[in-house]
Specification:
By secondary structure, this protein is an alpha/beta fold. The chain has one domain: 3-Layer(aba) Sandwich (Rossmann fold). 39% of the residues lie in helices and 24% in strands. It has seven helices and eleven strands. The protein has a five-stranded parallel beta sheet, sandwiched between helices. Strands 4-3-6-5 form a four-stranded mixed beta sheet. A two-stranded antiparallel ribbon has the order 9-10. A hairpin with a 2-residue loop joins strand 9 and strand 10. Helix 1 crosses helix 7 and helix 5 packs antiparallel against helix 6. The chain binds guanosine-5'-monophosphate (5GP). The site of guanosine-5'-monophosphate has 14 residues, from strand 5 and strand 6.
Length: 191
């Protein structure tokens, strides 16, 4: 059994940029474990509780926050999202690569606290292309798509920020071609 501590890998990027597809590919690797976030947003068709997210009421989310159970958290489009702390601690202690898929404000919290890890941002080729992908995915209505495009604009600007004199993200990848993006992430993870 490996005794080396594992690695945290943060994947973020605008909704529709392709980060979920990248994460799906990385999950195939036997050393990778994946964070299941808590959220107060409504469950979408096809989603499963405790698999895609832990779907919580606001009260329950607030309680977990007060009990310091969340590693980071953020509000996104009116809903709260957060990463449960103990699965990461357990995975890293077992030498695993622990993947969290989170937005930019949560990433900033981790960086500000000096949490070691590889921080990757997946960007869309353009906002028009992002809108097209969100429309094609069909899981958000027209208003929500425009809200997500607006948030994406902010996230793309924030992704180039510095935190304590260092870049927020170690790598920013423009996802033009999914296979190439997956390969680029894999090369960073397992050089
Ligand atoms: P969605 O509603 O599309 O599932 O997620 C909306 C956004 O919240 C996405 O950018 C997603 O990566 C982000 N997100 C999901 N879980 C977490 C989390 O635990 N913490 C943070 N900060 N963001 C999350």
């Amino acid at each position: 059994m490996s005794t080396a501590r594992g690695q945290l890998v943060v994947i973020s990027g605008p909704s529709g940029a392709g980060k979920t597809s990248v994460c799906r590919a990385l999950k195939q690797h036997p050393d990778v474990e994946f964070s299941v976030s808590a959220t107060t947003r409504m469950m979408r068709d096809g989603e499963r509780d405790a698999v895609d997210y832990h779907f919580l009421t606001r009260d329950d989310f607030q309680r977990r926050l007060a009990e310091n159970q969340l590693l980071e958290w953020a509000t996104y489009n009116g809903n709260m999202y957060g990463t449960p702390r103990w699965p990461m601690d357990q995975a890293l202690a077992r030498g695993k690569t622990f993947l969290v898929e989170i937005e930019v404000k949560g990433t900033r919290q981790l960086r500000e606290r000096g949490t070691p890890g590889l921080y990757i941002f997946i960007a869309p080729p353009s906002l028009d292309e992002l809108r097209r992908r969100l429309q094609k995915r069909g899981s958000n209505d027209a208003i929500e798509i425009e809200q997500r495009v607006r948030i994406a604009e902010e996230e793309l600007a924030a992704a180039r920020d510095q935190v304590a004199g260092a870049p927020l993200y170690d790598v920013i990848l423009e996802n033009r071609d999914l296979d190439a993006t997956i390969r680029a992430v894999q090369e960073r993870l397992w050089p």
